[in-house]
Amino acid sequence: MKNKKRILLFAINALLLILIVVCLLKINSYSSMLLSQQASGYWAGDSEERFSQVSCFFPVNMLTNPDSIKAFRKTIDSKLIEAGIEPKEDEEYWTDCYSATDSLTVKGDRNSSEATVIGVGGDFFLFHPYELLSGSYLSEDDLMKDRVILDYELAWKLFGGEQLAGMTVTIDNKPYYVAGVVRRETDKFSDKAFSGEPVMFIPYETLSSLKEGTGINAYEIAMPDPISNFAKTFVNESFKTANGVVVENSTRYSFLSIFKIFKDFGDRSIYNSGIIYSYWENAARVSEVYVARLYLFVLLLVLFPLICLIVLIVRLTKHLIMKAKILKFQVTDAWDDRYAREATWKERRAQKRISKNLQKHERNQKPKENPIRNLKKIPKKAPAKVQKVLPDKTANSLEKEIVPDIESIVREIMEEMHNPDNKP
């Protein structure tokens, strides 16, 4: 029964972990889907320095102008020097762009159409790398400001094709040359954020001449970010956007940034400052909601495996503590046994020494035997009488009989020594 429960828990946790991995992969996919949020990576290239992309959106009643942009640009290098980054003459450490949005009627060879017109300045197509179907992009360094770019839908409405480089369109009875045709984003976030009308890109100076009073509503910059929020704080302080919105694009999909969406969810949906976001920012905000939803789903999925992991850690900790206690007792017992064995060994050695001393003492105290009574050792040249007696007598009787004979023999020898002539 326990094995079945373990297998079931393992299967559930494995399934939940697979779902978590799928969600994380989806979050990564959503985070990298919008090309308009990747400018800092494009600009950094192979550099090991940290770069940041910051977007600033202005309210309708506080739109900025090219003069403010130029004044801001002059302060960027000095600010980087203060931060310890010395700009080099042959290297550009930052790039920026700005845009304004309006609508115009555009005429072509086959038809005319209402179009959303985006007036661009700076390095706009680095921040928004649309797919180029024909021709070329616009550049701020272009001397002629009468060139336009059509998106795929507008090109087909006006001309019925996309190879239009060098063709002309008419706006307010003035001809403008088609520099190229692009395809806008086709991801689901941009589709949700965009209203669907065709788009034309023209230089901001041209748009402001066609529509007087059209102000810049979006500014974007990619620059070094030596410390966290350096670029964002710099942009915010420079433009003094009290009622505007400054967005750190480079970290907008991080968990902390997404957590702020949950924290300020109600305030996020309400804006009274009159900001009209560009469609790419609306697409990014939609993607943030999708990512936030996935993060919430991940948090819910991770609860059960986390609880199981905590229970497993607690049980493992208890098991290890019990093992440690047992090991401690075993080590203590082994240590005590070592001392006990050593004490026993010392005691045995002491007993052996005592026993040897006692035996030695006993040998010293034992009286010496009379060599004459040691009857087992018979001299080789014994008297003939003794040799005749030995085979017939036992040891006990021999001892009784031999002793007086020896005495008599000794006596006779002594007498012979005193009377060599055998005189009595």
Average predicted confidence as pLDDT: 82
Poorly predicted regions are 384-393
End-to-end Cα distance: 125 Å
Shape: elongated
* Helix and strand run: HHEHEEHEEHEEHEHEHEHHHHH
Whole-number radius of gyration? 56 Å
Q: Supply the helix-strand structural class.
A: alpha+beta
What is the overall number of helices?
A: 13
Number of strands: 10
Q: Main beta sheet: strand number and arrangement? A: 10 strands, mixed
Query: How much helicity do the residues have?
Result: 40-55%
Percent of residues in beta strands? 15-25%
Overview of the structural elements:
It is a single chain. The chain is α+β, with helices and mostly antiparallel strands and 424 residues long. Among the domains are: 32-277, no CATH class; 372-418. The protein has helices spanning 2-31, 39-44, 66-82, 124-127, 152-158, 188-193, 204-210, 230-239, 255-263, 265-268, 279-365, 384-389, 395-418, and strands at 51-57, 95-107, 112-122, 131-135, 147-151, 168-171, 174-183, 199-203, 218-224, 245-248.
